[in-house]
Every structure is written in structure tokens, then in C-alpha cells.
Amino acid sequence: MSDPAATLASLLRSSTIQDHDEVLKAANAAIKASKGNLRAQHTRVVALLKLDRFDDALRALAEGGDSLEKECQLEKTYALYKSGQLEDAQKAVASAPGSKSQRAFRHVAAQISYRAENFQDAAATYRNLLNEGGGLAGEENDLKINLLAANAQLEWNGLGHVVDVQERQPSRQDLEAFETAYNAACAYIARGDFTRASVLLKRARDLCEASEDLSADEKKAELLPIMVQHAYVLSRSGKNTEAAALQKSIVLSEIPEAPTRAVAQNNQVAIGAGERNPYLTKRLTESATALPDSQKLFEYQASVLRRNRYALELQAQKFQGVESSTRSQILGATIPTASVDVANLGVISAAAHTRLGTGKVALKQILPMLERRPNDVGLLLTIIQLYVQMQSPGPALALLETFLQRLETATAPDHEDVRFAPGLVAAAVALYRLQGRQNSIRMELARASAHWRSRSEPSSTSLLREAGVELLRSSNPEDLAAAGATFEKLVAQSENDMTAIAGLVASFATSDYAKVEPYLQGLTTVERLAAGANVQALIDAGVAAIPVPVPMSKKRAADGDPEKDKAVKRRRKKRLPKNYEEGKQPDPERWLPLRDRSTYRPKGKKGKKRAQEATQGGMVKQEETLELVGGAGAVKVEKATGGQGGKKKKKGKK
């Protein structure tokens, strides 16, 4: 019988990537012959990792003892990472000697950070490895792919401002491989640019189908995630017919990865969900999203699926259950908070409490909820939205200002970050703009800029940029200085941000020329910017002024010049009768009542009798004047007419 150790050594010398089962059998045979064979134990662990049997690899490491674990620190870290034990994997990396200098450990550390959703650390590690160079063949391409994936995850989590400006735009090389094109498309999806994302996804699909390095099964496995993402993009772009057709071509059972399969199932339910039974749809979604711990979705993905589940439950009229579940999660979280997930729970809770109501009725029902949960940002924004829909920005702004003032007086340090959260600042600016309060807009942005400039870590780029632009429009020297400090912060975060450089130059051009002189060479010259412009035509056209919205106030205007304030009386236009004929003399009795006109002819028996009495030739009533006693005056009465000499007719005898 041959020696198992010699057989294993011979097999290792001639092994390829397809020999993992044979290597595992030979390693088990060598360990059976000699339990202390450290090389055979190490080989068994590597073979188990190659076969994706990570739990078995951890058991083999535990059976080998301390000597084997010391020899296989990298393998143990990788097995912990792949089995979903991220905290233990991070501890193993931190305790391994030379883990910060060895490229293999740094690769695994970056993967652990990525899966633990520490995307900034993962991106920084990949960027450092890429800049250092000196890796294995093909390692540079893998690093570019992973760096683009980490940047896309930062965009999804609202941290796109920490990504370098150059890395946010895909290079020509990124469009030559389907993996990099796909990751670049994901970054555009996170930013809401679905047009460019659709183009890049088509590019990634074409490159994958044309690849000669992949087998038919490998191409199919790589194409399915691209198709799932493209169906989502088409749906968000309003192309529901194309999205439904593409979604039908995806066979869910053929998707190898469970998280991708869950996302595809969710998208399939979302497309055309209005025509389905919400009870059956909810059961189908719950069965598809049950994932093991080692294959969990990222938090932003799980958050979307939770919201969709709550939406289905609201459609199924499970209002009490949804309200109870969301209320318990809100009260268990740290509030106030700028977390989007917690804010969404506040919106769903309000929808469940009002039974999907809207308008004044819903507003009357959820205002008492705000008194019980005054720090619920999602509930507050829901009420503000209802007020705006009712065209009542005044009460909405009053509620928001009260909430912001309460945060300013709080002693907790995180409350100040919530106070100047970009979303709340944007809501306040929008409400101020509805009322035409430009000074309040400038003051709010200046305070937000001052707060985020004081932070050492990268801050919200979009908020600082808008604040700097708004402050530049002011003629106040303090506002201009604040604008300059804001753009200095942006330039320090990214030296390639041309908007920040231009704002910095505009801020200090007249006050501190030495500070802006190093940046002048990087800006486009005025001659090039004005090339082709007809200056004289612009001068003749005049300066265009943006109309300022009139403040929505119900107060009476202040008294001004009495001569100017006098209202000019408008002459009413003469109204003519319908039967008016020009040149014809109007009836002179047209102003008299109808019965007083000469043409009046009453109708009926009584009317005819009165007419006979009033007409010429009728019986004339005889009147006589009687003097009242005591000289009190006189009255006219009708004179009595006597018949037959004034004698009464005698009654006849019966």
C-alpha cells in the first residue's frame, strides 16, 4: 500500500482548481494514518474552503488544536467571514500578527468591512491596495471592481459625499468589463440617475454575453443579477411594460444567490402589484425573503422589503397590527434621529392610525399622536406634507420651527446633528420659499453650514454647496466670509470639485486675492466662457430678474401715501335694456310702479270693478265732510243714499 502522505504530496504538485474533492480525500487519508500531520490538516482546511464548506472548515480547525489555528489564521478568518460570523472574523483579523501589512489579510479585512456595512473602511482599504500596486496577476481588476461596489454602497446609504469626485464618474476602462460597468450602474441607480444606469446595464449585459472566458452556466449566473437590476431601473423609469417583459424572462429558481433571489421576488411582486390579491402577495413575499444568517440582505435592502411588507399589510387592512409593530420599533429606537429607516416607520404608523386617510380628517387624527411622540421625525414630516397639500404652509412651518427650537435647547450632542440634518434643513428652506422669506432661507443655510464646517469628518456636500451658493448672493460681508469658509471646506474634502473651487474664487476674489490665486489656473478663462456670445444683444435685452414670490400673509398692509393709496373709482359700463332701439324715445313712465302707469289694466272681477270706478263715465261716489267734536278736525266719508224716501219696508204678516 502506498504512503498516504506521499500520495497527498504528489496530488498537490499536480492539482488544479477542479481537484478539490480528490485533495480532500487524500488529506483525510493522510490524517487517518497520522493525526499529527499538520500539512495534511492544513490541506484539508483549504480544500473545504474551496468547496464552500465553511462550517466544516471551522470544525476541522477546532479539531486540529492551537497549532493548526496558528498555522491557518488567514483560513480561519476567511471561514468566519463566509459563515456570517463577522464580529469573530474582525477579532481574528485584529489578533493576527502582521495583518495590517500582509495583502491577503487586508483583502479579507476589506471583505469583512464590506459585509459588516462599514463601507468607508472597505473603500479606503481597496483604494490603498490599488494605489500601492505590486499585487498578483489580475488583482488590480478585482480591486477596481470591489472599489466601485463599495462606492455604490456608500451612495445607497446616503454617504455619496465621501466618495471622491473622480471615482463617482466611471472611466473608459470601467466600461470594458461587465463587472465594473455593472457596479458603476449601481452607483447611478443609488443617485437616482436611471437613464445612465440603464445604458450601463445594457453595456454590462452585452459584455457578459460576449465574454469568452465564461462558460454557458457562468454567463447565465452572471446575467441574472444584471437583468434583475435592469428590470428595477425600467420600472423606476416608468417603462412598466418593458420591465414586466424583462421580469417574466427571469426564472427565480435559477438565481444561485439567495439575496439576489429575494430581491428579484420582491421586484416581481412590486411590478403590477395593484392587480394582485394583497393577502396572497404578502404570503408569497414572506416565503421568498426568509434568508439564513450567512446570506442576509444589507440593511438598506432589508428596510425596503420591510416597507413593502407593511404596505401589503395596509392594503390587507391590518391597521392595528401595523400601528402596534411600528410604534414599538419607534419607541425602541433612538429618537429624534436622522435615520431614514426610523422616519419611514413614522410615516407608516401615521397611515395605519388614519386608516389610509388624507386631508383634514387624517390631520385631525394624527396631530394628537405628535403630542405623544414629539420627537418622531417621520410623523412630523407627514403632518407637514398634509398641511402643504392643503395649501397651508403657515401651520406646517410653525410646527417645524417649534421642533427645531426644541432640538437647539437639548443637551444631547446628537440632537444638534439631527437639527441640521440635510432633509430637515431642506424642508425648512422649502417652506420659507413658499412664503417668500429670503432672509430666513439665508439664515437657515448659514447656520447649517457653520454646524457642518465644525465637523472634522466629511460632511454633506450637497448641503454645503447650496449654502455657499445662497450666501454668495448676499451683499453682507459676513455672509460672503461664511460662503468662503464653506467652499474651503468643500475644496478640502475634494480638490477636484470645480464647483467648490469656483465658489471659493468668487468668495475671496475681492477680499483675499492671495487665497484664490492658486486655483485660478484650474478655472476656465473668461474669454473661453464668453466665446460666441453676442454681448451687445445681451445688453440690449437687459437684465433678467427672477420673480420673487409674494409672501402669503393675511395681515393688512401698512399705511402709505394717502394720495397713492386712494382707490380710483371705476365707471360702470352703461347697461341698456334688451329691447332697446337706438333713436326711439323711452317710455317716460318707466320709473313708476306698474300699477301707477296709465297703461295698467288689472285682471279679474275685482280688478275690472276697480277699473270701472276709476274710469270716466262711471258712478261717482258722493262724499261729505264731517266736523269732529271739539274742533279736532274733519274727515271725509261717503254720503249715505236713502231708498224710497228713507222709510223702512214693513214686514208682512205670517
From TrEMBL:
InterPro entries: Signal_recog_part_SRP72_RNA-bd, SRP72, SRP72_TPR-like, TPR-like_helical_dom_sf. It holds the Pfam family SRP72. Its main location: cytoplasm. Residues 561-602 form the Signal recognition particle SRP72 subunit RNA-binding domain. GO terms for molecular function: 7S RNA binding; ribosome binding. SUPFAM superfamilies: TPR-like (SSF48452). Residues 556-566, 578-599 have a biased composition (Basic and acidic residues). One of its GO terms (biological process) is SRP-dependent cotranslational protein targeting to membrane. GO terms for cellular component: endoplasmic reticulum; signal recognition particle, endoplasmic reticulum targeting. It comes from the Eukaryota. Residues 553-654 are annotated as: Disordered. Keywords: Cytoplasm, Endoplasmic reticulum, Ribonucleoprotein, Signal recognition particle. Residues 567-577, 600-609 have a biased composition (Basic residues). Gene3D superfamilies: Tetratricopeptide repeat domain (1.25.40.10). It is found in: Cytoplasm; Endoplasmic reticulum. Belongs to the SRP72 family. Component of the signal recognition particle (SRP) complex, a ribonucleoprotein complex that mediates the cotranslational targeting of secretory and membrane proteins to the endoplasmic reticulum (ER). This is Signal recognition particle subunit SRP72. It comes from Anthostomella pinea.
